Amino acid sequence: MLLDVIHVQACHDFALILEFYNGERRLFNMTPYIDQKPWAKLKSDNTFQAAFVENGTVAWPGNVDIDPETLYGLSVPA
């Protein structure tokens, strides 16, 4: 089942607070991925903080995003 992200809040510790279409709020930790491509570029300046919702998932400037199934499956209830 695909659950769209409808709201995202980026935290300073590379965590994302997510709200999904079904009303669930979940916490996703990006720390294990932040040194990998394409997400490594999110470490510079305040790029990680520029997260936004696009087409049901989380995206960042520069055409970087992350799969909504990953966000849901690897997050924990907030």
Strands of the largest sheet, in order across it? 1-2-3-7
What is the 3D shape? Answer: globular
> What is the gyration radius calculated from CA atoms?
11 Å
Proportion of residues in β-strands: 35-45%
By CATH reckoning, the class would read Alpha Beta
Helical element count? Answer: 1
CATH names the topology as NE0471 N-terminal domain-like
Q: What number of structural domains do the residues give?
A: 1
What are the low-pLDDT stretches, counting only 5+ consecutive residues below 50?
Answer: none
The CATH architecture assignment turns out to be 2-Layer Sandwich
Largest sheet: 4 strands, antiparallel
Residue share in helix: under 10%
End-to-end C-alpha gap: 20 Å
Question: If you average the pLDDT, what whole number results?
Answer: 94
Could you please describe the fold and organization of this structure?
The strands form 2 sheets. Strands 1-2-3-7 form a 4-stranded antiparallel sheet. Helix content is 8%, strand content 37%. The protein contains 1 helix and 7 strands. The protein has one helix at residues 68-73; strands at 5-10, 15-20, 25-29, 52-54, 57-60, 64-66, 76-77. It has one domain (5-77): NE0471-like N-terminal domain (NE0471 N-terminal domain-like, 2-Layer Sandwich), CATH 3.30.2020.10. The protein is mostly beta strands. Strand 4 and strand 5 form a beta hairpin.
